[in-house]
Design a protein that fits this description.
- By secondary structure, this protein is mainly β.
- The chain has a single domain (3-32, 79-463), classed as Porin, CATH 2.40.160.10.
- It is built from 2 helices and 26 strands.
- The strands form 3 sheets. It has an 18-stranded antiparallel beta barrel. The chain has a two-stranded antiparallel ribbon with strand order 2-3. It has a two-stranded antiparallel ribbon with strand order 7-8.
- Strand 4 and strand 5 form a beta hairpin.
Length: 464
């Protein structure tokens, strides 16, 4: 991606965010003054509700995470910023025995994944974050593959010593508060730089860790909205293409907006990908999330991808529509959901990490990529000429420390209904103590093209 394209995208984003902020503040200044008294905080303190004991991280120094204690006064910089340094380290270990049979594939394996994170916080808005994944290398995970159907058993010892996440994020107004003592200039811009996770449209459009730079402005007081957020990002490395492959020298520039109206939250996101071998193109999406009455929720999304030069698995042309409806049954914490998706041609996401699978992972548990081992989702989660749906029930028990999900799902090519796949699945999860979760998955289905299939996973998740 050319540097000029990147800089233009960032400059446009700065102009857009600051311009909207100045206009909105000017229009609403009088209204804010009139309502100041009505919005004043009460003089008497309110007692906090009794909170459960917090889990203890690996390292927790300085102002301890979620601790009910006095906050350190810190120290003041020449810029006027008050820093209160704290150091936090945490992680999660996933270990699973899993197997599948049918569809010309029989395999069984023991797979492991370790995610480690460290965070040096300077203030509530400024922090350095580092992340490691020492038990995997892209989509290969350390463990053991059992010999099935004459295949040789083998130890999988892939180790990735490199840093997978490393970024700094902050707020210009908080770093240099003396530049705007009267809070008049729109310098409250958040920014982030480094290798960082980026998600657009809940992962349907983009879900990757990118090396780049981003700007964001929150709480813009635009007319007819209670909140408007605008952000831009430019990435020049670390881009995995829409088919989960490494993007070589690919780069991208993106714009993301989100605003709250009276009854719904709307979002519009757009990304331009500058790929190698003429695999350039644009991907955009718009979504609406709203609550209907007290217990019903509706989510709709419309997305499109357009290859400006050569169509390829990395970026193709197509449209995707997704509709999700959920309801919480009366006097319960349970959830019933029904999600459907349909595509025209081959919609392709802008960028997705190697362990994320296809864009349909959010449709249901049977489409979800487990992100652990070589066994993928029970139902394919690509979006090529797709017609798919998932109906599920999530039930909580043991004072919400346990849950079980039953799901019926299927997919087919909309131009060839005989090539359909139907499956049923169940997921059981239960917390053990404060740091351990036991999870059991099972599924079975019928594939018209290949055969019947089934699989399962028993997983132990340790959070620390």
């Amino acid at each position: 991606m050319s540097r000029s394209c990147l800089f233009v995208a960032l400059l446009v984003g700065i102009a857009l965010t600051t311009g909207i902020s100045v206009t909105a503040l000017g229009d609403d200044a009088a209204a804010d003054s009139d309502d100041a008294h009505a919005l004043a905080l009460p003089e008497e303190p309110t007692e906090l509700a009794e909170l459960p004991a917090r889990p203890r991280p690996i390292i927790d120094l300085g102002n301890r995470y979620l601790a009910n204690e006095e906050i350190s006064p810190g120290f003041t910089l020449p810029t006027g910023a008050v820093w209160q340094p704290s150091l936090l380290a945490w992680g999660a270990l996933r270990s699973a025995l899993q197997a599948e049979t049918g569809r010309a594939v029989d395999q069984a394996q023991w797979a492991n994944r370790l995610d480690l994170f460290g965070q040096l916080s300077l203030t509530a808005t400024e922090r350095f974050v580092i992340g490691l994944e020492p038990l995997q290398k892209r989509s290969r995970f350390s463990g053991y593959r059992f010999g099935v159907d004459g295949a040789d058993a083998e130890i999988v010892g892939d180790v990735e010593a490199g840093i997978q996440t490393l970024f700094f994020e902050g707020d210009i107004g908080e770093l240099f508060p003396r530049l705007d003592r009267d809070a008049w200039w729109p310098i409250d811009l958040g920014f982030s730089v480094g290798r960082m996770p980026v998600v657009y449209q809940d992962g349907f459009l983009l879900d990757d860790r990118l090396v780049g730079f981003g700007l964001v402005q929150n709480s813009i007081l635009a007319r007819h909205t209670s909140n408007l957020r605008v952000s831009v990002i430019g990435a020049w490395d670390g881009v995995n293409r829409g088919d989960n492959t490494q993007g070589g020298d690919a780069g991208l520039a993106g714009l993301s907006t989100e605003f709250d109206l009276y009854q719904a939250t709307w979002a519009f996101d757009a990304v331009y990908v500058d790929g190698e071998r003429r695999t350039n193109g644009a991907v955009a999406g718009i979504s609406m999330i709203r609550r209907i009455h007290d217990r019903w929720n509706l989510t709709t999304r419309a997305l499109g991808s357009y290859a400006t030069q050569r169509e390829s698995p990395q970026l193709d042309r197509g449209l995707l529509g997704v509709v999700g409806v959920s309801v919480a049954p009366y006097r319960t914490h349970d959830l019933v959901y029904f999600n459907v998706a349909a595509s025209y041609r081959n919609y392709t996401a802008a960028a997705r990490s190697a362990d994320r699978g296809g864009p349909l992972g959010r449709l249901g548990i049977l489409f979800e990529a487990p992100g652990l081992g070589s066994i993928g989702s029970p139902l394919r989660n690509d979006t090529n000429r797709l017609l798919a749906g998932a109906l599920g029930v999530q039930h909580f028990f043991s004072h919400r420390r346990g849950q079980i999900v039953f799901e019926l799902a299927g997919r087919s090519r909309h131009d060839e209904f005989r090539e359909r796949t139907i499956a049923v699945g169940v997921r059981f999860q239960h917390a053990v103590g404060r740091h351990v979760i036991v999870r059991v998955d099972g599924y079975a289905g019928d594939d018209r093209e290949d055969d019947n299939f089934a699989g399962g996973r028993t997983e132990l998740i340790l959070k620390f």
